[in-house]
Amino acid sequence: MPNHPKDASDASGQTNRYVRHPNGHVAPMSPFTDVWRWHITMTASILFRVTIGAATVGAVLLLTWVAAVAAGPDAYAKLLACSASPFGLFVWFGLTLVLFSFLLNGARHLINDAGKGLDLKSANLMANIAVWGPLVLAVLFWVVLFAAGKVSL
Fold it and tell me: Would you put residue 15 in left (φ > 0), alpha (ψ -120 to 50) or beta?
C-alpha cells in the first residue's frame, strides 16, 4: 500500500501523501505542496501580517515626534524638515498604506468573524479590496493633500 504511513513511496519511488524524513520518520506531506494554489486570500492574509511589522515603524516615528517636541523647537523643526523631505514623504505614504490596510483588513476580519462573507465569491471580493484598496485610498489621500496645498515637494 503506497499511501500507508509506514511506506512513503510507491513502486516507482514517487512519494504520495507521505514523506520519509532523513531520520527515517514517515509523516504526512504538507498540504500546500501539492494541493493549494496561490490565491488572493493568501495575499491579503500575508499583507495584513506585514502591515503589523510596518506599524512598528509608525510607532517609532510617533515616539520620535514626542521626543522632538520634548527636546524643544530646534529639534522639532529638524524633525519637520526631515518629514517634509522626499524620503520623509515616502515614509509617510507607506504609513498611510499601513493605516488603510489595517482599516480594510480589519473590516474584512470583522465581517468574517461574524460568520459572513465566507463563501468563495465574497471572500475573493473582500480579499481583493483588502489588497488593492489601501493603494487606491493612499494615492487618493495624498492627491488631496497635495491639491489642498497641505503637502508639497
Answer: beta
- Give residue-wise pLDDT tens across range 1-49: 444 445 444 444 444 677 788 888 887 776 665 566 788 999 999 999 9
Which residue is it, cell 493605516? 99
User: Do residues 88 and 82 touch, judged by C-beta distance below 8 A?
Assistant: yes
User: Over the Cα atoms of the chain, what is R_g?
Assistant: 24
Q: Around Cβ 104, how many Cβ atoms within 10 Å?
A: 20
pTM of the full structure? 0.73
Cβ-count burial 37-71 (b if 16+ within 10 Å, e if not)? eeebbeebbebbeebeebeeebeebeeeeeebeee
28: alpha, beta or left? (left if phi > 0; alpha if psi -120 to 50): beta
